[in-house]
């Protein structure tokens, strides 16, 4: 079966050991599973983190058909190892100073040097461990580009995490500074990873080399890696001394103190076949120490179906939609009153057949009401005035008309005749008095 193409991606920013989110880091005592394709099969281990390293509960070799069933039976969070040939690795010298500031500088360098190589969920970075607080710090950035074709376990989904094999070598290095390199080479795909350390200098490299079986080829690779990292030729030469002769197949070359520390961190659970299980165990150790941020890469991000509110928020936050909403608001402010009045006019037209006649009738009624109101406030006491005039009119006087007006004197006209011996003129005088 040919290698499966892993779609590439990663977390919201390159992971760092100073990041507060530890949700993907294994907790002490939690069962984990890790798989590494090597020598034509999967090397799988189930383990739990411990205060000093890990405890391996099972180490097994699986073919492709057995891998998925083993993962399902494990029923634990699983990860797989990314070969060095699929990973871009950069070593960055950060100088001395505050650790948080150095971490910030590391991520700034990551953005400048690796941002175009892979998405963020396929990137990771961390500061290397040091036993001297005032020592010059070194950071490592890793990127897993999507263009690489690698073998991944059957049934792996977007929740399955990936661990670069170089992270395992860094975990083995820890605070050690051996005189010999830590070297891993898999001739099946040419994956080759190396960690060089000396004094305050540390460098890592991942690449693809077809053949590294001869002593000359291995020495040339080590010298080339050291000189590229700034070692002098003499210092680089010392890195190749006292190294064992390379084997024809898989090579996991560990300095004696590194191998001894690896077995110590695993207790008495270290598998005997270090060539086939060394890298998977080293990567498991990385998941449980300060290099855990390098062990949480993802091939793809989990799918998230946004809610209606999230979709609306995203749509309304675009510039084009904001411009359209602003135009719509202006149109409502300008034409809204006209539209409202038009609707009111239409409703009135429907409820009154002849609207002009209704308006005229309403105007007439309003004028009549105004007249009645004026009469109510400005009318004369006619009845009382007539009674007073009648009482003051003597017999013999005949009144023909009475004229009255508000604020005007009463005008009375008529005839007077002699009555009961009283002359007409005298009767008129009596009435005036």
Summarize the structure.
With 433 residues, the protein is α+β, with helices and mostly antiparallel strands. The protein is 38% helix and 22% strand.
Overview of the structural elements:
With 433 residues, the protein is an alpha+beta fold. It has 12 helices and 15 strands. It has helices at residues 64-74, 99-114, 165-173, 215-228, 233-238, 256-265, 274-287, 308-316, 319-351, 355-378, 382-392, 424-432, and strands at residues 32-38, 41-50, 53-62, 77-82, 88-95, 123-127, 137-143, 161-164, 182-186, 191-198, 201-208, 251-253, 297-298, 397-403, 411-416. A 6-stranded mixed beta sheet has the order 3-2-1-4-8-13, sandwiched between helices. Helix 3 packs across helix 7. The chain is rod-shaped. The N and C termini lie far apart (142 Å). 30% of the residues are buried.
Helices, strands, pairings?
Layout: E1 32-38, E2 41-50, E3 53-62, H1 64-74, E4 77-82, E5 88-95, H2 99-114, E6 123-127, E7 137-143, E8 161-164, H3 165-173, E9 182-186, E10 191-198, E11 201-208, H4 215-228, H5 233-238, E12 251-253, H6 256-265, H7 274-287, E13 297-298, H8 308-316, H9 319-351, H10 355-378, H11 382-392, E14 397-403, E15 411-416, H12 424-432
Parallel strand pairs: 1-4, 4-8
Antiparallel strand pairs: 1-2, 2-3, 5-7, 6-7, 8-13, 9-10, 9-12, 10-11, 14-15
Q: Helical percent range?
A: 25-40%
What low-confidence regions span 5 or more consecutive residues with pLDDT below 50?
1-13, 20-24
Number of strands: 15
Distance between the termini: 142 Å
| Integer average pLDDT | 81
């Amino acid at each position: 079966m040919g290698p499966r193409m892993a779609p590439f991606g990663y977390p919201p920013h390159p992971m760092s050991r100073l990041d507060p989110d530890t949700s993907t880091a294994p907790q002490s005592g939690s069962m984990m599973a890790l798989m590494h394709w090597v020598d034509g099969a999967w090397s799988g281990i189930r383990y739990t983190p411990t205060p000093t390293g890990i405890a391996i509960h099972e180490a097994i070799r699986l073919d492709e058909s057995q891998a998925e069933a083993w993962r399902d039976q494990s029923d634990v969070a699983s990860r797989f190892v990314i070969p060095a040939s699929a990973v871009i690795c950069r070593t960055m010298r950060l100088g001395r100073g505050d650790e948080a500031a150095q971490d910030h500088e590391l991520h700034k360098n990551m953005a400048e040097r690796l941002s175009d190589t892979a998405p963020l969920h396929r990137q990771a970075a961390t500061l290397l461990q040091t036993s001297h607080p005032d020592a010059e710090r070194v950071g490592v950035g890793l990127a897993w580009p999507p263009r690489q074709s690698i073998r991944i376990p059957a049934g792996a989904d977007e929740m399955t995490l990936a661990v670069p094999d170089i992270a395992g070598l860094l975990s083995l290095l820890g605070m050690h500074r051996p005189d010999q390199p830590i070297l891993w080479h898999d001739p099946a795909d040419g994956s080759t990873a190396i960690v060089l350390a000396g004094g305050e200098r540390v460098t890592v490299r991942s690449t693809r080399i077809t053949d590294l079986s001869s002593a000359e080829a291995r020495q040339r690779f080590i010298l080339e890696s050291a000189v590229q990292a700034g070692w002098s030729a003499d210092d680089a030469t010392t890195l190749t001394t006292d190294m064992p002769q390379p084997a024809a197949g898989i090579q996991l070359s560990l300095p004696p103190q590194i191998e001894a520390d690896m077995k110590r961190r695993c207790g008495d659970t270290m598998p005997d076949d270090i060539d086939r299980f060394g890298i998977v165990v080293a990567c498991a150790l990385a998941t449980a120490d300060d290099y855990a941020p390098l062990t949480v890469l993802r091939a793809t991000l989990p799918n998230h179906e946004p809610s209606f509110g999230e979709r609306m928020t995203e749509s309304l936050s675009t510039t084009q939609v904001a411009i359209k909403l602003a135009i719509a608001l202006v149109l409502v402010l300008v034409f809204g009153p006209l539209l409202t009045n038009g609707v009111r006019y239409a409703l009135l037209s429907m409820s009154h057949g002849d609207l002009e006649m209704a308006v005229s009738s309403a105007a007439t009624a309003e004028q009549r009401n105004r007249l009645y109101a004026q009469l109510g406030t400005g009318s004369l006491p006619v009845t009382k005035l007539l009674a007073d005039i009648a009482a003051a009119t003597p017999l013999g006087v005949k009144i023909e008309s009475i004229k009255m007006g508000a604020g005007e004197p009463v005008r009375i006209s008529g005839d007077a005749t002699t009555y009961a011996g009283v002359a007409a003129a005298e009767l008129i005088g009596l009435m005036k008095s």
